[in-house]
Design brief:
Layout lengths: L4 H29 L1 H20 L3 H31 L5 H33 L2
Helix pairs in contact: 1-2, 2-3, 3-4
């Protein structure tokens, strides 16, 4: 049987569809089981329409939404790291604690960055 470009394209599309479904399953699991993910998702959903009012143009609006999305993304990674660490060893271990603390620090940095973006653009909006 001859290998064709269509066959390769079909296999690639199947792989992409499966990856999308796995991502949706992970998203749903996070929303069902993790309080921080639920809270940050609610902020994203509530903040997106608010970004339309605060941002003065497309770039600012997109920046506001992407800042919230980045916080949610980092929280998903933090949660994955914590679950993996707990799976590796449920016992208290200093190296595992340091890993979890650094992942949590990444969340804090993303939250502070998003807060700074939102505060800066909100102040600019209110001073017009």
């Amino acid at each position: 049987m001859r290998w064709t470009g269509r066959r390769a394209l079909g296999a690639g599309l199947r792989r992409i569809c499966k990856a999308f479904l796995y991502s949706c399953a992970g998203f749903a699991f996070g929303l069902r089981t993790e309080r921080a993910i639920k809270q940050e998702f609610i902020l994203l959903v509530a903040g997106s329409p608010l970004a339309l009012w605060i941002g003065s143009g497309l770039q600012e609006r997109l920046t506001l939404v992407l800042a919230l999305m980045a916080v949610l993304c980092i929280e998903f990674l933090n949660t994955a790291i914590e679950k993996l660490c707990d799976h590796v060893t449920p016992d208290r271990h200093e190296a595992i604690k340091a890993i979890k603390d650094m992942a949590s620090a990444a969340c804090l940095c993303a939250q502070l960055g998003a807060g700074l973006i939102w505060l800066t653009l909100l102040v600019a909006r209110l001073s017009l």
